[in-house]
């Protein structure tokens, strides 16, 4: 998890399940304040309910957020 909380929210397990089924991702600022917009874009595209619009594994690896993470890691080696 990027923020210590899941991107699907509900008061009950049933509400969370419904949010997952609807693909209703939420990024409340109080929880996701330190998460970049690029990281949130990556999550939205990975968790897209419409499978034809969802990122493939290859597309996910080419996402700018993943590419930047790889570059950052190389600087610390």
UniProtKB/TrEMBL annotation:
Similarity comment text for this entry: Belongs to the protein kinase superfamily. CAMK Ser/Thr protein kinase family. CaMK subfamily.
Molecular-function GO terms, alphabetical: ATP binding; protein serine/threonine kinase activity
InterPro entries per record: CDPK_Ser/Thr_kinases, Kinase-like_dom_sf, Prot_kinase_dom
Organism the protein comes from: Brassica carinata
Domain spans labelled Protein kinase: 1-66
Entry keywords, A to Z: ATP-binding, Kinase, Nucleotide-binding, Serine/threonine-protein kinase, Transferase
Protein's UniProt keywords contain Glycoprotein: no
Keyword ATP-binding: yes
Domain of life: Eukaryota
Name the record gives this protein: Protein kinase domain-containing protein
Matching PROSITE patterns: PROTEIN_KINASE_DOM (PS50011)
């Amino acid at each position: 998890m990027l923020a210590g909380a899941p991107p699907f929210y509900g008061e009950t397990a049933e509400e969370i399940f419904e949010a997952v089924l609807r693909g209703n991702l939420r990024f409340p600022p109080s929880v996701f304040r330190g998460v970049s917009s690029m990281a949130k874009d990556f999550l939205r595209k990975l968790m897209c309910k419409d499978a034809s619009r969802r990122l493939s594994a290859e597309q996910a690896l080419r996402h700018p957020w993943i590419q930047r993470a790889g570059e950052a890691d190389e600087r610390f080696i």
